[in-house]
Amino acid sequence: FFRPPHEVMKRIRARWRRLFQRGPPEARRSLLNADDARESYVLPHSVRKRMMDEDAFSRTEVPPRILEILSGVMLGVLVFAFCNVYASAVFMQHIYLHPHLQAGVGMNVLAAAVLCAVSVRYSKVGVYVASPDINPTIIHVGMAAHLVRSIPKENLQVELLPTMIASIALSTLLVSFVTYVLGAFGWTRLVQFTPTTVVRGFLACVGVEIIKTAVENATGSVFHEGFSHNIPLVFRLDFWLWLVPALAVGVPLYTLKRYNIIRSVFLFPAFLIIPIVAFYSILFVTGTTLQEARHTGWLYPEA
After folding, report:
1. How far is CA 169 from CA 172, 178, 199, 231, in A?
2. H helix count then E strand count, the chain
3. Mean per-residue pLDDT for 176-184?
């Protein structure tokens, strides 16, 4: 289940050594990724043998069929968690969208089910997880914010939800059409003509937007345009009280996954189940009712 501490420290030290190892940029980049490093010609035989030994340790003796069932259950729960996260990112943008969060979760789950069925039938990729993606979700978050500003206030309560659902449906159809055309005509190879700085800049912007949206959903705060307008948030006690539980889950999850301290087949279910059990245990110990938890913002509105 756990890697021995000396193995964990050895992996961490090896990654730092590879990070600062001299050599061509291509070799350094390949060394940053342990998976790529196994096949890299720049690795000495002793290093390659040690990494193969680590792989042998990480292999599980669980029968293949049981492992497939566990993986399927884990991915199903993980995709459902993604559906909840993506729906909350969009439908928590305005108070008029809050009561319809369940509809947003249902839309994501339906999209995931259709995508899984189509991928299993037609995809030629053997290793593939079909689920809603964070990149369109970030676009939908921006669409929701734009609709809130553009719809007249007297019509906002009536028009916001149907307009948001129609916008999500139309944008999804457009993305599906463009993706199909790129794959059907083999135009995906055009990416070789895209400057790497453009791709990296886009990924960096998506990363910043993801962090911003995550912090807003965790704290209930809204970041405004202009850096100086957001400085007072950092000095508010309630901001950190809401953010600490998210960090308590996110930082250990990233660290354990980054250095492969716990196998993924155990890691993700544990981080989906343990925080929920801990949350309801705290409610029970403190005598807090579900209605009080919803009123204070710890639970979503009742369906």
Report:
1. 5, 14, 26, 36
2. 13, 0
3. 87
Distance of CA 271 to the CA centre of its chain: 13
Contacts of 283 (CB under 8 A, 6+ apart): 289, 290, 293
**Segments in 156-236 forming alpha helices (H):** 156-184, 196-219, 227-234
User: Which residue carries 């928590």 as its tokens?
Assistant: 92
3-class SS of residue 21 = coil
Integer Cα distance of 100 and 112 in angstroms: 19
Q: DSSP letters of 111-151?
A: HHHHHHHHHHHH---SS------HHHHHHHHHHHHHHHHHS
Rounded Cα distance, 84 and 132, in Å = 11
What tokens appear for 178 in the block? 């463009």
Per-residue pLDDT of 206-256, as tens digits, reads 888 888 888 888 888 888 777 777 888 888 888 998 999 999 999 999 898
- Give how far the C-alpha of residue 20 lies from the chain's centroid of Cα atoms, to the nearest Å: 29
Residue bearing tokens 């909840």: 84
* Burial classification of residue 96, based on how many CB atoms lie within 10 Å of its CB (0-12 exposed, 13-18 middle, 19 or more buried): middle
Pick from 9, 37, 1, 5: nearest CA to 21: 37
Tokens of 23: 């050599």
User: Residue 239 has which token pair?
Assistant: 């901001």
Question: What is the per-residue pLDDT across 67-100, written as a single tens digit (0 to 9) for each?
Answer: 778 778 888 888 998 899 899 889 988 888 988 8
CA-based Rg of the chain, rounded to a whole angstrom? 23
148 touches 94 (CB < 8 A): yes
Question: Model confidence over 12-59: pLDDT tens digits?
Answer: 666 655 555 544 444 444 444 444 444 444 445 555 555 554 454 445
